[in-house]
Protein 1
Amino acid sequence: MAQISSTIAGRQFRLACEDGQEEHLQELAKDIDQRIISLRRKFGEIGDTRLTVMAALMVADELAETIQKMHRLEKDIASLQDARLVASDRARAASDAVIGAFNSAAERIEGITRKLNQTVGNGGSVPIG
């Protein structure tokens, strides 16, 4: 298990993390420190504990908003997947209808060609088709 030393709200903290996560933990600690600095500028010296709690609440609020957004996006994805399936089914049905129409037209053309061949065949001409 790795350890880092980080400064948050002017105080040094020794923090443990999984190996390879040191840089990530440093960035998180830096983010918390920056939030506390920003709150201190905005509200003045109202106590480290209070500033830390306010920073934690800001992070929790962002997390809650992100989770809500993720749930909305998951619902949107599910709706889009459903719409894609419906569109795919409609496209398949349209394709089947076009194929059926072409087959029907081809059969009619072949029927007309047979009739013309029979008619022309009686007159001694070369068959059509």
Note: Residues 8 and 30 are 7 Å apart (CA to CA).
Protein 2
Amino acid sequence: MPSYIGIDYGSARVGIATGNSESKLATPLTTVAPDKVAAVIAEHTPDIIVVGLPRSLDGRETPQTLAVRRYTDDVLAGLGTELAFQDEAGTSSVAEERLKESGRKYARGDIDAEAAAIILQDYLDSL
């Protein structure tokens, strides 16, 4: 059964989530600095890395889209793991709303990990 890592890239923090094809359920894992992502991926040895790809509201690429593509090419592509992109439109807002509704205290990093789970869940739902 394939396992997955979901990535919500940011220049300061990267949200990470895990999931697998059997349960088709994504779970927030952690938030780390961009230079620590490879270590987390090595620890979890996923079959596929799903990277959130931001776009403008009209679907065009933005400077952040290019930053994500550059990070993917420079860091993730060299890991030898299959890569997939998933639209990440609105995931941070949805993640923050979910955390607010949960009633528990959360930090900014929790939003990033939750956004990664939403990105990965959207991908798993499309399988």
Note: The mean pLDDT is 95.
Protein 3
Amino acid sequence: MKSVSKDARGFVEGVISHLKRGKSGNVTPKVQSLLLKMTATAKHEHQAKVESAVKLTSTEIQAIARVLSKVAGHEVSLTAEVNPALIGGLRLTMADWVMDSSIRNELKEMASIVTVS
């Protein structure tokens, strides 16, 4: 099992502390700083992964890599994996940054809304 980085642990502890206090206090700037630092880490990442329910064409993979490279501000190497459990859509991962537009994720979010309501 992969351990969490010092920054990620600090971020989680800051959020928990903030929630326990029920007010902003001095925690919010620290949490905001850690979140920005984690996002900056993702921007320096040169590796990314795209998962899809079906095999992507080389043209699709190249197009996604171009978009990620533009967002990161440098060349990003993209690996593609087939994950039928996603049902449809994509899941992109670059460092700690994850964008999940899969049908599985959408259904999971809808189910949580239904159970909360």
Note: The longest strand covers residues 47-52.
